[in-house]
Amino acid sequence: MSVKHLIDTKEANFTTCSPTDFLDEAISLMVESHRNAIAVIENETNLKGILTDHDVIRAVHSRQSKGGSISQDHVKDWMSADVITCDVEAKYTDALKLMGKHSIRHLILTDKGLPMATVSIRDILSKIHQNDELEVSVLRDIAIASRAAFAG
């Protein structure tokens, strides 16, 4: 099954911010959308980076260790500019391999090169778990029906 199914079932919309947004504004967007990462987009379609909870922690730690705050920092100062993307037609396993290879927890899904969604490893694993539970349920029903037919 392709990761495109994650977009179809995702409750949260594709949350984005601009590189010039203040970091605290982007953090508010992350909190409001219940996401641990948001895409950094310029001119509506140009993917510039990704801002993750780890980037935010680095920023806060860096500023607080120097007695400052993040209030004047911009997203571009802390985002990860080397974004790993994955086509929406990729399989779950391919997306997980990509995440493992690059030691990341979030991917930007693209369709024809345009960013469409941000997904986490949790999103993918949750969907795989749901599919496994459904498969077990179907197999259980088949086994019960087979026993009933054999006994009867």
Task: Describe what you observe in this structure.
There is one protein chain. The chain has one domain (4-121): CBS-domain, CATH 3.10.580.10. The protein has six helices and six strands; from the N terminus they run αβαββααβαββα. The protein has helices at 4-9, 23-33, 53-65, 75-78, 92-102, 121-151; strands spanning 16-17, 37-42, 46-52, 85-87, 106-111, 114-120. The strands form two sheets. It has a three-stranded mixed β-sheet with strand order 1-2-3. A three-stranded mixed β-sheet has the order 4-5-6. β5 (106-111) and β6 form a beta hairpin.
Brief sketch in words of this structure:
It is built from six helices and six strands, in the order αβαββααβαββα. The chain has 152 residues and is of the alpha/beta class.
Summarize the helices and strands and which ones pair or pack:
Elements: H1 4-9, E1 16-17, H2 23-33, E2 37-42, E3 46-52, H3 53-65, H4 75-78, E4 85-87, H5 92-102, E5 106-111, E6 114-120, H6 121-151
Parallel strand pairs: 1-2, 4-5
Antiparallel strand pairs: 2-3, 5-6
